[in-house]
């Protein structure tokens, strides 16, 4: 392969650094862009993928990560998203083990480190794509485009669109996928060391194996095989696509197929095709029940009945993705639920953007195919290959995706944009020599702005409060943004402010059942029961299998004394969610209010069977049995509960009350396996004895509690009060 050094490389306004120094600078830039996210919280999707994902727990069998999806749901379940990323989940599990629990700092540090490594490896990828594969006499690969590859890698390291992948822990999937994507490509290139096109089959199998690893991190990894194939055709075999197409269209003698066969190209492409087909088949089999199902709010364009409208809106989405690469200022954690209204007519001015996008792409394609400059053709072609091919799984062309725009899917595609941008800087520097200082200042300014924007955006990702509120100015029509702001406010105790955002979410999306449910809960707590009932009734009418809304509706109806309706609502909740301990608990409360003691006990027993540490259910059983005079049974239930919850002071207090009524004043320490629990029991027993007038026993238990814990809250004050009472009684007797 005889390819010349890019003539424009030395015109790029950057100092020429050695391989080590350029890598260190790139890593440093990547680090300063996102380092301020290292001690951030778990935010947004992290709660489902990490906090609530049982596959991270060391007590869960390791084999589960190969059976469940990215979110911990079984792949065979109809509710599964079918996102099969076991190696990513495995890294989360390792983080959990090393940190001894769910401590986000370790998760964030690894994400930032991965981005630094990927940015450094991009220098090698760009060097090959810009300057080709050239080795010296010792087989060491030469970088014929040191400045261009360095600049492109800097653009990649500092691009703000990467913030979601780096600062959001769930973005680990994109980072790992990109890492093994790069390794697969570099291994494929390694096969041509020395210019031998008939490389050992071992190299191509190694590349396919790394592609499989990338797929086990995220599905997008399969696209590296397309990049490898394009590299083989365009660079290794130096095939001129324009000339080949021209010959075929003009019906002249076509390309020499025999030459392609002798070069081994067809064999390599066949192996790539067979390997990719096998991986896709295996991935399809793993999905089990077929592709995931998404709703209209996830991807409204894919539900448009008119095919033309669907195509127009897909292209509008592509133009928005391109704009995020060009001007990554308007970034948002979620682009669904009305954030991007559909284009529904030809008079919508936004139709200009898809047209502009395709004009730009056609211009780039023309330059990539028809330019007389081989360096330009090569660089622009591979820029387009890297830009388009990794984006294909998110394009809706092959299957419906579950989002409108997702910044994380641009992590790999941004490499193609950075390559084209670096070429643009080099081309302008070469042809506009009179403005070299201006170009240098512009390039430096662009890098600094990107670094500052990345640092600012990663600061947003440090907490849910800052992340959600930052989206209000970007996507004010997004109901999910308002919902998440409201939920965050409610979680922090500011329910009055939360109501405002929940109401706005429901206004923007009148069928947003989760916003209705949460708003109904707040109104219930504020005793605005009629409106709460109306909201929750609407929610279950829109989504009849919404178990949580059925339960909350039952609670409201119970408060409104609509007992029959409340009972029916509770049973509907249980019908749609078989294992629902909280619903059984609330059903038991309803039965207790109706004096249906046996039904109440059965409901609470079901709650404790489904959730053995359900303290309220245990305590209510003890109290109900106590109130109905079943003291012996109440004692048994209380002791059973303390075996499971030995530190629960409410159960201890209820049990102590039962024991006192039976005049069983002697403490059985077998039910209090730890000293703290025994100390608490002594304090509670002392209070009860004090209340019952058994002052000597109360004094003994106060003293015992204070010996175990001299700083027990309230105990010392009660003990002093008792002593004064005893002294007063002695003076009266005397």
UniProtKB/TrEMBL annotation:
Gene Ontology molecular function terms on file: dolichyl-phosphate-mannose-protein mannosyltransferase activity
Pathway(s): Protein modification; protein glycosylation
Transmembrane segments: 20-38, 112-134, 169-188, 200-216, 265-284, 351-369, 381-403, 409-430, 671-692
Location, primary (coarse class): endoplasmic reticulum
Membrane-topology annotation of the record: Multi-pass membrane protein
UniProt-listed Enzyme Commission number(s): 2.4.1.109
A matching Pfam family: TPR_19
Signal peptide positions (record): none
Cellular component GO terms, alphabetical: endoplasmic reticulum; membrane
TPR repeats: 479-512, 513-546, 547-580, 581-614
Biological processes, Gene Ontology terms: endoplasmic reticulum unfolded protein response
Localization: Endoplasmic reticulum; Membrane
SMART domains hit by this protein: TPR
Record keywords, A-Z: Endoplasmic reticulum, Membrane, Repeat, TPR repeat, Transferase, Transmembrane, Transmembrane helix
InterPro entries: O-mannosyl-transferase_TMTC, TMTC_DUF1736, TPR-like_helical_dom_sf, TPR_rpt
All copies of domain DUF1736, residue ranges: 290-362
Enzyme kind, highest EC tier: transferase
Family note: Belongs to the TMTC family.
PANTHER family: PROTEIN O-MANNOSYL-TRANSFERASE TMTC4 (PTHR44227:SF3), PTHR44227
Name listed for the protein in its UniProt record: dolichyl-phosphate-mannose--protein mannosyltransferase
Organism of provenance: Cyprinus carpio
Encoding gene, per UniProt annotation: LOC109096726
